[in-house]
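FIELD: query
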Amino acid sequence: MNSTPVWSMQRHAADCLGVSERTLHRWRSAGLLKPGEHYRRKFPTPNR
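FIELD: result
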């Protein structure tokens, strides 16, 4: 059984991918990472 969590913190994900946290933010803004599929908000709000 794999003990790796399904969701990782942004810092850990950036380290694993070898990119900066800012790059992850740009990828999300550009639509390369899909909410719910590639990431989820820690504190989701109905306005987003």
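FIELD: remark
Residues 15-41 form one domain.
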